[in-house]
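#struct-queue
[09:14] JT: dropping the first one here, sequence first, then the structure tokens:
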Amino acid sequence: MSDLATCLNGDLLCTEDATRLEEEEDDDEDDRFVFLMSRSAASDSEEYIRFLFSRERSFGDFGHAGGGDSLMRARSAAVRWILQARIRLRFSLQCAYVSVTYLDRFLLRRTIDSNQPWIMDLLSLACLSLAAKMEEIKVPPLPQFPAKNNYHGKSVLRMELLVLNTLEWRMSQATPFVFLGFFAYKLAGELASKELLRRAVDFIFAAIEGTNLVDFRPSAVAAAAIFAASGSPPTEKSMNQGMPIIESPELDQILSCYEIMIQAGASPGVGVKRKRLHLSNGSDL
């Protein structure tokens, strides 16, 4: 039995049927998320962005995550569940991304036995629950989460505590979304559009299933997504002209992340649904 299984040993499952996962769209919330990013594009100062850079560099939980093919397959399945569950629960894109960062930071520090798939299921549930508590205004009770198995609440809470202790209770972190609006404005100026941001978000979520988030800093993910969405590959010249605030050592990370995003492709609707949001002033997003 693995160390995780030992920590969580007990009666894990309820006898009731688990809630089934059925995808439901929440287009307005996703569009509003992009709208808020576009509003901040021109207003975010370089001083504020530099502060975010320093914050992500001091965070420390970045580096190559190990694990064989079986673990990566289990992780991909867990990420798919998180992305589907956040739609069902009408959680934000931010919440989904933070959930996956918790998952990846945990896997960076602990080993999971791939022969015990229930551990990854329980871990993904705990990560989504913790992210919801950090990011959402209203969090439904655990029985409403569309888990693959109907775990006892105490089992989920034990896993949440294990995640908290493993991550040393450092749950507040920068995400690519705080950089996207600024980078879009720097690259495209006044031509930066909400559609560019939508495509950038789509690229991020298209790549998230196969990309361990601890491999890249959030700012590198954001920059790569903007370049992918704009159709222009990042070069040292374009970085110096459009995003001079980024230091040159970051270019390799951005290039690697960009290539992953292009390979994964931006699947419309993975991140942001394409439904129009009609505002009260008559304009469309």
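[09:21] JT: and here's the second one, same format:
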Amino acid sequence: MEARLATSKEVKDLGKSWRAILKLRDEARKFIKFEGIGSKICSRAIYDAASNPEAKVDFVLKDKTWIWRPARSDALLTIQCQLFLIELKDEDKALWQATKSGKFSCAATYTEIRDKSSEVEWWKLLWFHLTILKHSFIGWLAVINKLSTLDTMTRWGYSDDSICVFCRNFLERRDHIFFECSFTRRIWDDMMKLCLVSNAQFILVDLMAWGSRELKGKGLRVIACKLAQWPMVYHIWLQRNAIVDEERIWTE
């Protein structure tokens, strides 16, 4: 028996977003099962029941009554005995296999279908109980180098100018705009002094390695450094976007 996930005619009547989602119906079917006996039926039992492997439950069910032919094997007899113990209801109960409860969960389903990678050491620098999510999100994009810096935009053909909008001297790359630029480096120096840090690195890869090594525990200095880093990245990127997109300059 298959789950009902919408027919072709119904899909045409839906909006573009829903049509895109429903293209995943074949993937969704992998996660759906129906509550039943739970054991596979052998080919001999299927033959004895005068059925076939693709048959549905209604082949042997009419008006909530089982209409099996007399059993000619122990396997079929066992199946019939188990079925008579099942309470017949008006509707089948579909279970979502990605969760223990059988109920659909976006988080559990995403965990099942996403590509699994090894855990990185620096995740605790970004995601902790006092984090500000918008700051950590932009910080995460910076760490994995997915922000649309001007050097990337130029390669994509969306920009003719790839020079840093702050210093106007060097190519705008991730490490330059956040750490090497004379404008942002001065801000980082001041912030690190306030956090009583004198040995922090100013290349993002090295900064993450330093943070993973030095910023452990829940002490005041550790929390202060974590809370200071990502607002810095966030507001530098915000200022950069204001200049690029709106030609507007904010004060330090």
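[09:30] RK: nice, looked through the second one.
[09:31] RK: The chain is about 50% helix and 5% strand.
[09:31] JT: good to know. The longest strand covers residues 32-34.
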